[in-house]
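hey so i finally got around to running both of the ones u sent me last week. sorry it took forever, my laptop kept dying halfway thru and i had to restart like 3 times lol. anyway pasting them below in the order u listed, first the sequence line then the structure token line for each. didnt double check formatting much so if smth looks off just lmk and ill redo it

first one:
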Amino acid sequence: MTPASGRTNALPLPVLAAVLGQTVISAGTHLAARRATQDVDAISLVTMRILLSALGYVALLSALKGPLLPPRATWRWWLGFGFLAGPINQGFFVYGLSRSKASHAALLYALTPVGVYLLSALRGRERVTAARLVGIGVAFGGVVVLLLGRGLGEALGPLVGDLFILGAVVAWVFWTAESRPMAIEHGGLRTAGWSLVAGALWCVPLAPFVVQLDAFLAAPAAAQLSLGYLVILTSMGSYALWNYALSRTEASRVAVFANLQPVATAVAAWALLDEPIGWELVVGGGLVLLGVRLAQR
């Protein structure tokens, strides 16, 4: 940007704090979802997650000033977008993780910036610039180093689970690119809340048939706490932070921070699960940070 435009290259501090906070929460999300699906059926888990997060948003929005419901003329849009954000994104993610690994989920979500940038450019919402492309390329190169540094066998992983997670990534790309206009108009909190409430409406008819409440209550405390993490921190906190950032800057500048998720997940696994940190994290993490920085310029 030129000085005459009144804007600078650096992200505003509140936006930077939001995307970094979302990155930290996402690192824990991969671990929490993987832990919970070890003891709770994936479909039951994701249905409870969506319904509980929707109830949380209803309570939160009821306590705040402003509209509780979106404009009536947009209800059809919210129902469609809620299906994408809830059953598709969260459902595919949790089900895929039940058959894959947390590290694979974090690495696949690193594809987000490429998809968001290409989609936004195709829709004429952002300009194609060499700096942005180079930054995304360098960051993704760091992800490849992190992935292949653990060996090709580890990189391939369980195919079925990874394919479902990839479907969740595609849904997340569309969420990120398409929700920005609504986030600008209504704010990040209401955009996230209305989307999850709309997503919950799709789950209500199936809930009596798929929710296994007795099995969940009998599960270890770690699984129950993991569901609490997914509801409160991920579906409510992380989604709201992500949409807040989208309301303040271009979608591709927000999405590039998804490249930090594999690094953050590896650090979280080291801190919580005592997994070793190898050379691939240092080299790959350095490239990711460099790419994120380049993409912001």
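and the second one:
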Amino acid sequence: MKNTIKTIGVLTSGGDAPGMNAAIRAVVRCAKFYQLNVFGIYEGYQGLIEDSIKPLDARSVKNILSRGGTVLKSSRSEGFKTKAGREKAYNNLKKYGIDALVIIGGNGTFTGGMYFSEEFDLPVMGLPGTIDNDLHGTDFTIGFDSASNVVVDAVDKIRDTAESHNRLFFVEVMGRDSGFIALHTGLASGALDVVLPEESQPMEDLLFELQKGEDNQKTNKLIIVSEGNKLGSTMEIAEAVRQKFPHLESKVTILGHLQRGGAPTCSDRILASHLGVAAVESLRQGRTKEMVGMINGKITFTPFQEAIAQQSRIDEELIRISKILST
């Protein structure tokens, strides 16, 4: 199978993440370096079904390295979940002579790619593009560093108001099932506490941290809340705190999709470029149904099934350090 790949298709699927464009650029330019044809598939798997496929060359991806979002667009496709939808998508690929795919996304993207590869014996390699950093097989996913920097920048600004008015701010960040953004940004911004999906933290613990901050005359009263935490919505948490500390003026800021936008950081651009080149080269070497990642600065390959089944775990040491430094 080595060196038999002649034409590669590339798509982005699921939620967008800063650095996806850098990954697209790397895939396209690496493919052209090896004299391969390359096609961009627009709107993710739905674009495969609807034949939204266009040829790309090195100039097609100029000036996108610094752009957020994805120039190939992204969507979620119900049709691709069906055998008929995937068969239509495969027939469209054959029409353009596409004999391998690079898919950029998260769990849902890799699940679709795995079934597609198995059903039609099509080589598929995946790049981890998600701000949640929840994929097993890589230290960091494309977009995580950029999203974290957006949060830290926002929290730094909120702190100015919090300290000026002696207010307590709850800042909700993305992370339905993963607390990576909350933990990293909470530590980086000096938050009083972080509320994570991975922890079954009772409300009493949060109230204790607030009381400790009061006793220590801590002026920084910021709490980072991951949207998927087990205590409830951020508004419900804030209300419970108001009942205990009525003298504190509590405010809630939900950063939402602000975290997805903006130019990717230097780290995300380099990671995306590194992984994009590795994806193309691994296809040429005969690899398939694997996610390309990076652990300790080295390229790694994780089968889709394993990357999907095993969620990346947050660093317990960072939780410990965060508790120490919040006093």
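quick thing i noticed on the 2nd:
Residues 237 and 243 are 10 Å apart (CA to CA).
anyway thats it, ttyl
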